[in-house]
Amino acid sequence: MTLNTSGPRQAPHDLLGPDANAAVAAPEGRVDIVRMAAWLVVGTVIIGLLYYGQEVLIPLAIAFLISFALGPLVKVLVRRGIPQVAAVSVVMLTVIAMLLGLGLLITSQVSVLSAELPAYQSTIRAKIQGLGQQMEGPGLFDGVFQTIATVQEQLATALQDAPGAVADPLAVTVVGDGPSPFATASAWLAPALAPLATLGIVVVFVFLVLLDRGDLRDRLIRLLGGNLHRSTDALEEAGKRISKYLLMQLVVNVTYGIPMALGLWAIGVPGWILWGTLAAIMRFIPYVGPMLSAIFPLALAFAVDPGWQMVLMALALIVFLELVSNNIVEPMLYGTSTGLSALSLIAAATFWTALWGPLGLILSTPLTVCLLVVGRNLPQLAFFDTLLGSTPALDLPTRIYQRLIANDPDEAYEIASDAIRTTEIAAFYNTTGMEVLRQASDDYHANARVEHRLRVVDGMDQLLEDLREDHPATPAGTPRVACIGGKWQVDAISAEMLVHALALADIPAVQRATGTVTARYVDGLDLEEIDTVCIGYFSRDPDAAVRGFVRRLRRRWPDLRIVLALWNAPEDQAGPDRAEALGVDKIVLSMDEAVQRLTPAHADRAAMQAPPPPADEAARLDALAQTAVLDGRAREDLDDLAKRAADVFDVSLAFISAIDADAEYIVGQSADLPGRRTETEPRMNWMPRAEAMCNHVIAADDTLVVPDTDRDVRFSDNPAVRQWQGRFYVGTPLRTADGHVLGALCLMDREPRQIEDAELDLLDKIAADVVAVMTDQDAVPTEPRREEPPAPRGVLGQRIPD
Question: Hey, how many other C-beta atoms are within 10 angstroms of the C-beta on 404?
């Protein structure tokens, strides 16, 4: 017998033994430990400075937050021609006058209530006596208490009768001259002077901050350092979010206090103005403020009414207002942005309260929002966004993949279902589903154990089965398309996903089993009635396997149309040259492209390339004719706007199109374009409407984004795209105030690229300016697109304005 002593192949440092491994890994570990220790030291120093410097930092923090709220008012006055000093003075004096008036109102109400309270003593005494009588009678622990009292009495008597017992000493009091009048006055004035001094410091700081905000912003940008754009964005976003947050909080509190006061007046609770004002003020204190403000009117209702009707009505009013404010008013005013997570809000409230006391509790939410905004804009502080934000720390595909690794397919299904509610199942497959399989493919050899691979495969099977039940699709007809996974189980899962996506597109398809490519396996595929086969691979180098598989398929079915899906290949490796070298008809890179490439075999491709006109076609054409842009009007202005769009978005071409009944006309462009030109206007290009990409924008009445025209079957053979060398295209509708779409503002580039929602918002603003030039009317504002994904299930968040 011969023993195999070679064993698994080892790395060089493994041959040296475990001690050598530790020595090799030690330097990197030491670096991590040193870095962590440095961060801990820095954090400790910062917390110490915050604690011991609170007498200076608290007024500064309050002043900055107040300046955020008052800054927009000062800016409005300055834009109206009022000097900066005068505008700041007017705003400050107005706020101080309002606060003084509020203080006088509260003082007068307190004085009135103080005079009336003695009249309620009899009612309070009668209620307490009634409650005491109801609670009279033998209790559970009466016998225990009586036994303890008897033992104490007997013990005291025994100690007094004991021989040698000493009588209690006499108490002696030393009477002196007493404190001086100056000391007494100081003791009374000191507690009152400290808040007044803090208030004065706050007023001075607010005035100085509002007086020269630009210089202060420049200094903060210099301190933040790094990228000037990121620092500027951080300060702008922080200012907008905090100012709007404070304004909305003021509006919410006022809309709560006024109904509270009116409701208490209707119920008959005295001092209703005071309690409504107190409720509005106390709601600035998170968590405990609303509860504290409810105690006083309930206590007074208890004292005034001999019965319990007034107390119950006041309690019902408070509960009703809380429900309306929390579930209707706040979502309507704050918007749908979640901002901070519930855990971070509670942790921040605890942290700032421990540092700065009750004022820290009031300032906790605005200060935490500042940290969140800084973390979103500065990479070196990005951990604040991870710790404090309510947006998921992991992206959607990674969350689903992690749940599958953790053997929790049910939660993976819940996450997927939430994502599908905001999109379509086909779009979910194209982005999220395929990305999950890519991660599983990349981890197959690198990190995944056998158990992990099995969990992912079983979990994806269960997830797809649940999604098919939730989104059933049974297209009519005999299946003419077969989907086959090339090599691994993830390839087979992608084929299963593609079959469902095709069914949702009303294309009957079937899946064939994945296996080792042999003559017996190919004969058992049963492709007699199949016209097209789509073979999917996640392998980054599948060429050898593809050639062998395709050769056997061609030998068995010569007329078969073969589409190769390379789910993990880069975009520059899917051209016709590689398709010809591998022996396939087409190469696709995404689920959407696969569905498009397989659709023309069973649908009219011309219908995909030429969508039907919109429902308001006649009114739209009349609105376009009234602009007279087809006659060359406002050509220079439209060219300038197109050049601006091309420069801002850094694309090779930007143009403005107007869609007439039969043709598309380029009424503004950033550069000369080849192609047909009109006889009346030599500078104006035109093309048939059926060939115009902007025709899809008109039909859908929505922005169209095509990251790569070569990968979109609607535009891969478009003559204008070929002639203008466009790989990337985005078109946003030119919509009038009446809702008619005249054409599109389009961007085109020679290389594939992506575009973010924030950039599309800027494109919409330029499109509104284009419409204003075309129609001689004011620009129509557009709704911004959401940048933040929805909060995960089970995560609550403080609503922060966008």
Answer: 24
Report d(CA 656, CA 118) in Å as an integer.
79
Is domain 475-603 in CATH 3.40.50.280, yes or no? yes
H or E element, residue 704: strand 704-706
Of 800, 6, 801, the residue nearest 341 (C-alpha): 800
The pLDDT value recorded for residue 669 is: 92
Give the pLDDT confidence score for residue 109 in this predicted structure: 77
* 722 residue type, one letter: R
Q: Say what the pLDDT of residue 602 is.
A: 44
| Predicted TM-score (pTM) of this structure | 0.66
Closest CA to 49 of 356, 372, 362, 364: 356
> Look-up: residue for tokens 């200012």?
239
Query: Are residues 724 and 750 in contact, defined by beta-carbon separation less than 8 angstroms?
Result: no
Asked if 224 contacts 234 with a C-beta cutoff of 8 angstroms, the reply is: yes
d(CA 654, CA 744): 11
User: Under CATH, what is the fold of the domain 608-775?
Assistant: Beta-Lactamase (3.30.450)
Q: Rounded to whole angstroms, how far apart are CA atoms 109 and 273?
A: 8
The count of residues in the chain is 802
The residues near 478 (Cβ < 8 Å, ≥ 6 apart) are: 508, 529
Residue ranges, the chain, pLDDT below 50: 1-31, 140-141, 335-338, 601-603, 605, 787-802
pLDDT tens, 680-735?
777 788 888 888 888 889 888 889 999 888 888 788 778 888 888 888 999 999 99
What's the confidence (pLDDT) of residue 14?
39
For residue 62, the tally of other CB atoms under 10 A from its CB is 20
**How much is the pLDDT for 655?**
94
* Crossing angle for the helix pair 272-282 and 288-304, to the nearest 10 degrees: 160
Do 698 and 733 contact (CB within 8 A), yes or no? yes
Compute how many other C-beta atoms are within 10 angstroms of the C-beta atom of residue 445.
Answer: 7
Look up residue 484 and give its two tokens: 């086959």
List the 663-669 sheet strands across, edge first: 686-688, 663-669, 653-659, 741-749, 728-735, 704-706
Domain limits, the chain: 393-472, 475-603, 608-775
